[in-house]
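Now for a typical sample entry:
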Amino acid sequence: MRPLDKGSGDGYKPATELSWNKYYDKKVTANWTALNALTGKGDDSTLKLETKEALQLVLNLNTGQPIETLTTPKTVVDKKVVEDQKSKATTAITEKTAEIYKEAAGPLCKALGTFCAYCETNITGLVEVDHVANKSEYPTYTTTWENFLPACGACNSKKSNKPTREEEAKEPPRPKIEGDKLKEDLPFYNKIRAQDGALNPDYYRWPDTSSGTFEFFKIRFEAQLQGKTFLPITHAEAAAPSNQITEENISKREVCANVWYQGVNRKNKLVQVVVEPDGGNLTVMCGLNENTVQKGSNVTYDRRVYNRTRAWFEVLDTIEPLRTTKTTKDVDAHWPAILRTSKHVGFWSVWVTLLNQMEDPETKESLAKRFCSDKNISYPGTNRKDLKF
């Protein structure tokens, strides 16, 4: 998985910040005009207590109390009134904030290219704006730039509303919560987005916060060599130029190829390129290996593993001329083709993995290092800080 640095969001203009410090000790970036219109009040300082409680429900920030127990100094809040308010306000806010956060798609693509932040697919159609902390359970981050990543439909759909607030509340290490601040999003967001220094098995290695992303999400080439069992093949043998596709079946998402394994050329074997499991919960959350051949699923709309496998062989064909280079000047002559092809193929990790099996004939430096450091590369926003080749 490509480590990302998406910058500060130049070109993205979120809604005006509304100070909600009175209740939640922070500023919320959102447009609350629709909600205030429902209450008949113009600003947050005059909101009635029952409206505040209704707002907590709308934002999923309540303390877990049943609706019937939410009271004002004078009266019990009517359940139907609150539910009606919640439904109307949720619809109004959802429509308004959707207009806002979808405007982030352009700046995201400018900063990071049109590649899914999770599976690395080159998205040729609709680029979806994924909320790392999902917008239904962490609504105060619905329009926040830091909470966005570009995603393909398959990854965004599979990730859905995970990680859930319920799981984050019970799984250690628990967010640091004092008093009634369980209703706040911030402790949960801080836990979900923990930086490298605080990593443990319960944290997520997001591509834009974990500088060692690539180390945790390496890819593995596998072939069906013993019955229906897939065995991993070393990158060196999987990079052999004679490895070629022999058959493809898109309806079953199957790729067959001649591949080298332990010094022997194995003919017409089922192959697949999967993400190493070291990435832990994020690999599962996004279903990065969801439709591998061994799972036997006949779902054709999710072709991420299939496309990653095909990309492996397309990259092999593209870098083939580099095998005969004898000088840096020879590498320079072939390099523009590498840059052009990488733009439409996608799957940055495939390029880096295969180019790391090659070196400049004069400098002896890994061509993966050159690929990652090239300013003309088609993968903008790559965080090169901790890449090791």
The mean pLDDT is 77. The longest strand covers residues 264-275.
